[in-house]
Design goal:
The chain is an all-alpha fold. It contains three helices and no strands. It is 86% helix and 0% strand. It is found in: Membrane.
Length: 64
């Protein structure tokens, strides 16, 4: 039902964002060590989510 109202791509992007947030929370709570590669992965994931969100907003504005 959720896929019907959004899209499969939106659900995938949200899943990636959720995984990144869960990893950050885990680091904050359990003090897990984070590598530079891990931080870069978090940054790329969050940037992708923001860019996707902006692109989706712009496509809705031009569609209406």
């Amino acid at each position: 039902m959720v896929t019907k109202h959004t899209s499969a791509l939106t659900l995938q992007v949200l899943g990636n964002a959720k995984a990144a947030v869960a990893a950050v929370v885990s680091v904050l709570i359990f003090r897990n060590p984070v590598t530079v590669m891990g931080m870069a992965g978090f940054a790329v994931t969050i940037m992708g989510v923001v860019l996707y969100s902006e692109a989706r907003k712009r496509s809705k504005v031009t569609a209406h």
